[in-house]
Amino acid sequence: MSTSTHDLHALERALADHDEPALSADAYKQVFRRHAAGVAVVALRDEDRLVGFTATSVISVSAVPPLLAFSLASGSSSWPALSRAATLTVSFLAAGQEDVSTRFATSGIDRFAAGGWTALPTGEPVIDGAQAWVRGRIVQRTPVGDSYLVSVRALAHGVADVDPLIYRDRVYHRLVTPTP
């Protein structure tokens, strides 16, 4: 499903109808650079090639039904493949997988060439060593601003007992042992 052009124009009008000053793009980015987030790799098969990218915008939307979402800039090199995809995987990276995150965030390279992934029987790639992964069916692509919010229904998963990779202010972090 996708949002109609009418819905997009309604959103644009709603955003423009308010006379409050908006944050600049730089100020807005400054806020979210300081927000710690888990790191994931979204991956899919687009005909005979694999497509993947790093995302820190993955959120849980609903447990019943199991839905998650993430955003992707409309100008991303991965968007054309994602706009055609029916299914994908989200691999939540583990502490120590900074190199994987960096590779999948780098433009102009074959992000899968270095290996470190396994294809599910359905064909989508999962990152080896990830703390968890979800295979899902895309249920909606909603244009919002200069990005798309992609909603996914979870169909299958895997989990490992390892710590997550955390990203904050352009630096990778690891969890520390909690104090009682």
TrEMBL record:
Gene3D superfamilies: Electron Transport, Fmn-binding Protein, Chain A
Key words, A-Z: Oxidoreductase
Entry-linked SMART domains: Flavin_Reduct
Record's protein name: Flavin reductase family protein
SUPFAM superfamilies xref list: FMN-binding split barrel
Annotated ranges, domain Flavin reductase like: 32-174
